[in-house]
Design brief:
elongated, 2 domains
Length: 291
């Protein structure tokens, strides 16, 4: 009796483990420029562009996940992680290979998103997961509430958002909009036709340079702003702060906007002008640093 009971417990434990970790390996057809839509609650979504046919989906479904619903119609493929009815938890770790020119829509709650080598339109959104992009997409929209948004390079048009997470861009190109509340924005280099950077209390660092007719508009409430300026830049600078400081390493010092008030402003032209850089802060510091 005892031996039989023990064997039953072992069998149940093995079944439990099998149910907790189920593997996925599916391949579905999709047009080279089709759209892939992915929804996941927790875990990870990792997408890579490839030259193979269709879409290949592999990964692991953990306890609490009911099924992986995969449906297709025309040039659209939908991948959705469904939880069990009574379960509020369930993680899925998915690795998805898509055609290089495919378009992506990915939504997660706490799952991280990683995309590499996909040249189509990317729309990526998470609540608390990190979003990371490598490659050269045609357009990029990426947002997270508390996670970081990291892009190795940007697209012709990019819109990056986070509330308390950081936005980091290694090499910026095209037109870039980046906004945070308490997180930081860091643009490490590149050339931009336009840059709209906005924060409430987070800092903004920009080492990208504007193109000949580029337009930079950088604004913060209480965060600090630092811009690295190359020696050969040709741009018109308009800088203003209410109670913060302005430090300029490439030109004249700032002036007070009012004899009795704390406001300061700085307007000058570097080189022959052409590009326009506008920086505004309420109480944060502003620094133009020579490269």
């Amino acid at each position: 009796m005892k031996k039989t009971a023990l064997m039953m417990l072992v069998a149940l434990a093995v079944v439990g483990v099998a149910q907790a970790d189920r593997t996925v390996d599916e391949t579905r057809p999709l047009a080279a420029d089709g759209r892939v839509v992915v929804s996941n609650i927790s875990g990870m979504v990792k997408v890579a562009g490839w030259t193979g046919d269709g879409v290949n989906i592999t990964g692991t479904l953990e306890d609490g996940v009911s099924e992986l619903d995969i449906s297709s119609g025309g040039s659209r493929l939908t991948i959705e992680v469904e939880l069990e009815r009574r379960s509020r938890r369930g993680s899925a770790y998915l690795t998805i290979k898509v055609p290089t020119n495919a378009n992506l829509e990915i939504e997660t709650v706490s799952a991280d998103i990683s995309v590499d080598g996909v040249a189509g339109e990317l729309e990526l959104e998470s609540v608390s997961g990190h979003v990371e992009v490598s490659g050269e997409p045609r357009s990029l929209e990426a947002a997270s509430v508390s996670g970081n948004v990291i892009a190795a390079s940007t697209a012709l048009s990019s819109d990056l958002e986070s509330v308390s997470g950081n936005i980091i861009v290694r090499h910026a190109t095209g037109r870039l909009d980046a906004s945070v509340v308490s997180g930081d924005i860091e643009i490490e280099g590149g050339f931009l036709e336009s840059f709209d950077g906005e924060s409430v209390s987070g800092s903004i660092f920009c080492a990208a340079r504007p193109t000949d007719r580029g337009r930079f508009d950088i604004e913060t409430m209480s965060g600090k702003i630092e811009m690295v300026v190359p020696q050969d830049i040709s741009a018109d600078f308009y800088i203003e702060t209410y109670s913060g400081s302005i430090k300029n390493e490439i030109g004249p010092p700032p002036k007070r906007t009012d004899e009795y008030g704390p406001g300061k402003e700085l307007r000058f032209t570097a080189g022959s002008g052409g590009a326009r850089v506008s920086i505004e802060s309420f109480s944060g510091s502003v620094k133009l640093r020579a490269d």
